[in-house]
Each structure stands twice: as structure tokens, then as C-alpha cells.
Design a protein that fits this description.
Layout lengths: L1 H12 L3 H26 L5 H25 L4 H6 L1 H5 L6 H21 L3 H6 L8 H27 L4 H17 L9 H10 L6 H4 L5 H28 L3
Helix pairs in contact: 1-6, 2-3, 2-6, 3-8, 3-9, 6-8, 6-12, 8-9, 8-12
């Protein structure tokens, strides 16, 4: 698995993909940070640090929704198109090790993306002292778990096709559907709305962004990741035994 992680990281950073995705994420996050900070400075009397970070983390969530499908689109689709996936199966690697290796490589890129935004609290200087560090870390934990869930969905879609563009488009569509589950509350009854709330990815973030950690939300996101990775292993194994390219 370690060898797969190294291979994927080399692949990411030997091309422009990782650099472009990270640069776009930091540029968009920086723009939102400037806009949100300007808004809170103009609107005097508001809770600057706590309110600012809730808005900022929500905007960074939107950036991840747009950009993370670009990280996962090539993980299996490109290998299948080039025929190198079949070559990988000749090595003493289990399907689970291949999937986890590729997934953890994408997670490391996600950590780099989020790590670059840690400069924003430093820019606030003394104003940030009123914001409990634990609350900020809780927000980042929620953002990381959400990004990890995005990546697990994307790697499954990539394992089902040999087209990078199709993998990115379908991943983005699936994630938007998860986002839109609870938008039209008037169109569904209370029982259906309760069910939709249980499987909604995005509604579970607000506790994190307010500085709290709910073990039920953490458990749901971890189960979401585990289920999608398990489906990826199953999809990979099924196509392998059928000899589908």
C-alpha cells in the first residue's frame, strides 16, 4: 500500500493536476476569506471571529465540492484507459491495498490544501485570541471528514469508468445531489425529511462549524467513507474477474 501511495503522489506532482487544484483551492479560499473579513469589519458589532469562521468554513466546503472530483477522476479511470491497471494486478497487491493506497494519496493532497489555509487565523493576530482554538479545530475536523467523504465517492466513480471527464462529472453530480437532499422541505413529509436528514452529508457540518463535535456525525461520515471504499473494492474485483477493461 505504501508503494501505491508513493506512486500516486509522484503521479500527482509530476503533472500539473495537484498544483492546479491546490492553487485554485487556495485562491478561492483566500478570496472568500478577504470577502468575509471585509463584511464582518464593515458590519460592526457582530461576533467577528466566531461568525467569520462559520462563513469561511462553509465557503471552503463549496470549494472542495467543486475541486475534489478533479483529484479522484484519474485514480482508476486513467489507469484503465492506459491499460496500466491490468499491469498492477500482476503485482502481489490485493484490491484493498490498491484502493487504500490511492485513497490515502488523495487524502494527503487534501491535507496540503487545508494546511495552506491555516495562515488565515495567523493573519487576524490579536483578534483571533477571542476565538477558542478548540472550536476552530472542530471546524477543520468537520471539513477534513467531509473532504474525505468526497474523495471516497470520487474513487468509486473513477473505478466504474475509463473516462476522467465522465468520472469528474458524475462525482460532482452525486455530491450535489447529497447537498440538495434537504433543500425543498415543503415537498416532502416529516418522515421523509427525517430520513433525508439522516443521509445528508452537508447538514451534519453545522455542529462542527459552531465549534462542537457530535460523535454521531463523526460516525456517519466515517461509515460513509468505509461503505464507498468497500464498494470500490467490490467494483474493482468484479471488473477484474470479468476481465473488463
Amino acid at each position: 500500500m505504501t508503494a501505491v501511495i508513493r506512486k500516486e503522489l509522484v503521479s500527482y506532482f509530476s503533472s500539473l493536476l495537484a498544483y492546479v487544484v491546490i492553487a485554485l483551492f487556495l485562491a478561492l479560499s483566500g478570496f472568500y476569506f478577504h470577502s468575509n473579513l471585509s463584511f464582518f469589519l464593515i458590519s460592526g458589532g457582530l461576533d467577528l471571529t466566531r461568525g467569520l469562521w462559520q462563513y469561511q468554513l462553509l465557503d471552503m466546503r463549496q470549494c472542495m465540492l467543486t475541486l475534489l472530483p478533479l483529484l479522484t477522476m484519474r485514480l482508476f479511470a486513467e489507469e484503465r484507459r492506459l491499460g496500466t491497471l491490468e499491469l498492477m494486478w500482476t503485482y502481489p497487491l490485493r484490491d484493498l491495498e490498491i484502493v487504500l493506497g490511492k485513497y490515502f494519496a488523495a487524502l494527503l493532497v487534501l491535507l496540503l490544501m487545508l494546511g495552506g489555509t491555516l495562515v488565515y487565523p495567523l493573519l487576524l493576530g490579536p483578534a483571533e485570541a477571542s476565538m477558542p482554538m478548540g472550536a476552530l479545530l472542530a471546524g477543520y475536523l468537520g471539513l477534513f471528514l467531509l473532504g474525505a467523504a468526497f474523495l471516497s465517492c470520487g474513487i468509486l466513480i473513477s473505478a466504474l469508468t475509463d473516462s476522467q471527464v465522465l468520472a469528474a462529472a458524475v462525482t460532482y453530480t452525486v455530491l450535489v445531489l447529497f447537498w440538495a437532499l434537504t433543500w425543498n422541505q415543503a415537498a416532502v413529509g416529516a418522515p421523509a425529511l427525517w430520513i433525508l436528514n439522516q443521509i445528508s452529508l452537508f447538514d451534519r457540518l453545522y455542529t462542527f462549524f459552531r465549534g462542537g463535535i457530535d460523535t454521531r456525525d463523526v460516525t456517519f461520515l466515517l461509515l460513509f467513507i468505509a461503505v464507498f471504499l468497500a464498494w470500490t473494492v467490490q467494483a474493482l474485483g468484479s471488473r477484474r474477474w470479468r476481465g473488463v477493461k
